[in-house]
# Entry
Amino acid sequence: MKNIFDLNETNAVIDRINNLETTSQPKWGKMSVDQMLAHCNVTYELAFEDIHPKPNGFKKALLKLFVKSIVVNEKPYKKNSRTAPEFLITDSKNFEIEKERLINYLNKTQNLGEAYFDNRESHSFGKLSKQEWNNMFYKHVDHHLNQFGV
# Structure
């Protein structure tokens, strides 16, 4: 798995994002490019913003038991995988705003570095290692950039 905390990898991902256009079409799935960018931003909103309700103890236990390993391992996501309700984007978004937000989140993540994230509490899965944070961040954005052919 590539390391999103490495400046070269962050820049490579940003270059891929900059290759997207408002007219970019997905190879699979139903999201438009603006929705995809907003969808990718949710991962970073959960890490940096206090705008999503925290799961209660029961839901968090279920997430840790059944979802965490899928999200933080190195195995790529399957095409058309189900997504959590918090990640569903059904309305149109502003492409440029969502693109800028994602790039800013990537830069913030890279600037904070892996030491910041090591053993840090996640919104849904409890404490994660720096490798688990990396896998979650990189794997998700890579999956969706591949979805749009960049």
Remarks:
- The chain has a mean pLDDT of 95.
